[in-house]
Amino acid sequence: MGLDTLSNSLKDAMKKLAGKTVIDRAAVDELVRDLQRALLSSDVNVKLVMELSKQIKARSLDENLPKGINAREHVLRIVYQELVNLVGKEAEFSLKPQKILMAGLQGSGKTTTTGKLCRYFQRKGLKVGAIGADNFRPGAYAQLETLCKKINVPSYGDPKEKDAVKIVKDGLAALKDVDVVIVDTAGRHALEDDLIDEITEVNAYLKPDHRWLVIDAALGQAARDQAKRFHEAIGIDGVIVTKMDGTAKGGGAMSAVAETQSGIVFIGNGETIDDLERFDPNGFISRLLGMGDLKALVEKAEESINAEDVDVNAMLRGKFTLNDMYKQLEAVQKMGPLKQVLSMLPMGNLNVPSDALDGTADKMKKFRIIMDSMTPQELDEPALINTSRMMRVAKGSGSSVEEVRDLIKYYKMMQKTLKGFRGNRMAMGKMMKQMQKGGMGPMGPM
Amino acid sequence: MFEGLKNKLGLGKKKNPIPETEAPVPAAVETIPSPQPEEKKAPGFLNKIKTLVVEHEFVLSEKDIEESLFELQMVLLESDVAYPVAEAITEHMKKELVGTHRKLRESADDVVTDALRHAIEKVLGEGFDLVSYIKNHEKPVKILFTGVNGTGKTTSVAKIAHYLQSQGLSVVVGAGDTFRAGAIEQIRVHCERLGIKLIAHQEGADPSAVLYDTVEYAKAHKTDVVLADSAGRFHNRVNLMNQLEKIKRVMKPDLVFYVDEAVAGNDAVIRAEEFEKTVSTDGVILTKVDMDPKGGAAISIAYTIGKPLVFLGVGQGYDDMKPFTPSLIIDEIFGDD
Predict the structure, then answer these.
(1) How far apart are CA A253 and CA A250, in angstroms?
(2) Averaged pLDDT, B195-216
(3) Which pLDDT value is given to residue A338?
(4) CA 20 to 30 Å from B132, out of A378, B91, B181, B298?
């Protein structure tokens, strides 16, 4: 089912409320129905959805319309507030020496996330170490060790040792010099009593500062019962949602949050070790509803690129040259796949050709090398590039004329895409305003 | 397994899921002293009705069942049947039920249960007899396993290798997941424990090359089955999906098995569709069925791609891989107890 259709119908429902001075019961009903569909399709717990709809309906119809705002804004605000309640706040932690215990179902991504967390704390300037207490899955420690070695973080594990508590004990001794210890554990689920007992023992011995539950974004209604059992066993105080780079919406994580009375700590959104970001309720809600998320994009951009790296204004004014594309490619390299970045933008009704977005890292690298062989004039005025120039560029960059042609084709596609962007003035204007403010309105541009 | 769905549907308890349609003459109900549920009416009541409307037929209207269908949809959703699939099933049932003439004596319970059973039976299909497929096919039979990250491909390959071996077939495994750290080590340990030949290259090697070598090995050694593991990949990564196509081109699998987990929610539908579109699968393996007794994902995936379920992974041991038969699920949901 097309999620775009869903968010569009949600937008339509919103539109019907626009300009109304009195809240229309039928319009609210329709909106709530669409909202239900969106949330249920995103794996939010059925009971939570029903409670939420009841709240929204009651508040929209009962609360007086405050002066100065229209019906649409009023309902929108209620919807947003209720959604924020549902999603919960981000779970807090501090950058001090601490111990963290990872828990979760098989295949949810605990080991990968442990590696990513090491990287996170390392970048924050702390000394980190990882203990691999998963002695059940073959290769689990080899996996953790490989990840840690890549970023020069010490790790401890002993696949032959049957006792997880003993591994943790020896690991703490081996890693006594580090500030932050992250303990990876074997995957287990709620119905495996002996394994739940095991993690209870590890928890009792380790006395961790945090016990984080790793939840696969695709996890469905089962999330609630699973989280409940883990919470009863060890007291979960934070949830990490993994695999958000797929198409899953992460609604299951909300059941986990509700069940554990905690919040989401991190979002895992890619296969490289840097693909871990702090949870942002706004972004999460946008995704649940299938609408763009501006705030995460802005934050991500701030972290990895300087303001002058990409001249968004020039791009939008219509001058998009190879120079801009070069900068863009550089920036994208830092920010992750373009598709991921664009998916955060509020442009639901903009159809970007998927092959325009799916540049593999290699292809992008190649493009940059080719552009390095162009003259400044060519970069600024791509129309100059004729066949003989193409041949020169190809020779200079050690590529084929075909590849240079590919690059020009890609450039034209990007240019066209940005034109479409400009056509969508309303959304753009709003987006620019938001970017300058550095914040985000209730639900992003509708 | 599937107890959740069953309990929620109230099938075990014989609760009447259609309220009130059973009582066309509500006034008469009060005259019955017995507190029994309506559909198990005392003969006296039935006889009375009979004399009034002998063999009279009762036509179900949309309004009669609207509420129960909504409830059914909620139950399906709670059991992790994806939203569009739950919608399709209730829609299908509505079509089947509305306007049907049902004899007054026939309980509404049975009518709805039958309709649901038909709907789910149709969706789940007949399963797939892998062993007889292999026996009737030119050797080696090459099977490629694919799916998104963390669904249990590597573990399933090991379990299925063990199963086929116990059926008297010779097996070789190809370590086609050269991407995930530790993946080769994982399958190597499994194969060592099970005494199965493994063909592996280094981490980061071209998976097509590994799997090509595996096929060559099988041909040279007259091995019956090649099981090809592959790295988990998200269906929205065109380059990874292209890599999968290349693997397919190079090793020419006879069967492509799509692996997904029973605990997956709505995304199960989206990704199954995408995998079906790009690599066209021949069968589905549902893992982690022991984790979630509701099992809606089985229905979602089977409905979406219309390919048979082949195996269900039901636990952590090597024996915990059960060949799928429709009765395995149908009986769980509708069985009398």
Answers:
(1) 6
(2) 96
(3) 53
(4) B298
In a domain, A391, yes or no: yes
Residues contacting residue B39 through CB under 8 Å, at least 6 positions apart: B16, B22, B107, B108, B109
CB contact under 8 A, B74 and A46: yes
Q: Quote the minimal CA–CA distance from B251 to chain A in Å.
A: 24
Q: Quick check: A112 pLDDT over 70?
A: yes
* β-strand pairing of B57-59 with B197-199: unpaired
| Relative orientation angle of helices B267-279 and B238-251, to the nearest 10 degrees | 50
The architecture of the domain spanning B3-124 is: Up-down Bundle (1.20)
Picking from A106, A109, A358, the nearest residue to B238 by CB comes out as: A358
Residue carrying structure tokens 């669904």: B151
| Distance between CA atoms of residues A339 and A318, nearest Å | 21
Residues A279 and A243 in one domain: yes
Per-residue pLDDT at A103: 96
Q: What is the 3-state secondary structure (H, E, C) of A96-132?
A: CCEEEEEEECCCCCHHHHHHHHHHHHHHCCCCEEEEE
Alpha helix (H) residue ranges in A175-250: 193-206, 223-234
Q: Are residues A128 and A262 in the same domain?
A: yes
Whether A202 and A306 share a structural domain: no
Q: Say which amino acid occupies B179.
A: F
Interchain CB contacts (distance < 8 Å): A and B:
155
In whole angstroms, give the CA distance from residue A325 to residue A320: 7
Check residues A154 and B305 and name the one with the higher pLDDT: A154
Chain B residue numbers with beta carbons less than 8 Å from the beta carbon of A243 are 148-150, 234
Judged by average pLDDT, the poorest of A193-202, A221-230, A272-281, B25-34 is B25-34
Q: Is residue A315 part of a domain?
A: yes
Indicate whether A411 belongs to any domain.
Answer: yes
Given pLDDT bands bounded at 50, 70 and 90, which one contains residue A411? confident
B186 in A contact zone (CB under 8 Å): yes
Q: Whole-model pTM above 0.80? A: no
Same domain, A146 and A227: yes
Give the tens place of pLDDT for each residue, B260-269.
998 999 999 9
A365 lies in some domain: yes
> For A42-108, where are the alpha helices, taking DSSP H only?
46-62, 71-87
Q: Do A107 and B151 touch (CB under 8 A)?
A: yes
What is residue A210's three-state secondary structure? strand
What would the mean pLDDT of A184-204 be, rounded to a whole number?
Answer: 94
* Residues on chain A touching B234 (C-beta within 8 angstroms): 243, 245-247
Pick from A57-61, A256-260, A324-328: least confident? A324-328
Give the architecture-level CATH label for domain B130-325. Answer: 3-Layer(aba) Sandwich (3.40)
- Domain containing A164 equals 98-291
Q: Are residues A178 and A243 in the same domain?
A: yes
| ipTM reported for the complex, 2 dp | 0.77
Asked if the model's pLDDT at residue A153 lies above 90, the reply is yes
CB contact under 8 A, B270 and A247: yes
